[in-house]
UniProtKB/TrEMBL annotation:
This is DUF1330 domain-containing protein. Signal peptide: none annotated. It comes from Actinomadura physcomitrii. Residues 3-96 form the DUF1330 domain. Coiled coil: none annotated. It comes from the Bacteria.
Length: 115
């Protein structure tokens, strides 16, 4: 099942030179794990709550490859280039299949909650 790496970034302009190097090197760290950008540094249109940063979403074929990428020596080496200069929240999350049914999930959760 597809998995995603999501970054909520709070850039502090101007960007540090390290961030440019990070951007130049990240794709090569993703390639061995089948990763690709879904969105990269886009400012979201916020409808609820507040968020003043940018969003990055990476897609991987599955959670094992998403974890493999994040934990890889190649990616671990470049993390400080971003993390030292851009406050961020980084997370990995499983996607849902094409047959996902929100109504069925809601009903199952309701039933489970009732015991």
């Amino acid at each position: 099942m597809t998995a995603y790496a999501i970054g909520l970034l709070h850039p502090q302009p101007p960007l540090h030179e390290d961030v440019f190097v990070y951007m130049e090197r990240i794709q090569a760290t993703m390639d061995p794990f089948g990763g690709r950008f879904i969105t990269h540094g886009k400012t979201p249109e916020v409808h609820e709550g507040t968020f003043d940063g940018a969003v990055v979403i990476l897609e991987f074929p599955d959670m094992d490859r998403a974890r493999g990428w994040y934990d890889s020596p190649a990616y671990q080496e470049i993390i400080p280039m971003r993390a030292d200069h851009i406050p961020s929240v980084i997370m990995l999350v499983d996607g849902v299949g094409a047959d996902h049914d929100s109504a069925a999930l809601g009903a199952a959760l309701r039933a489970a909650q009732r015991g």
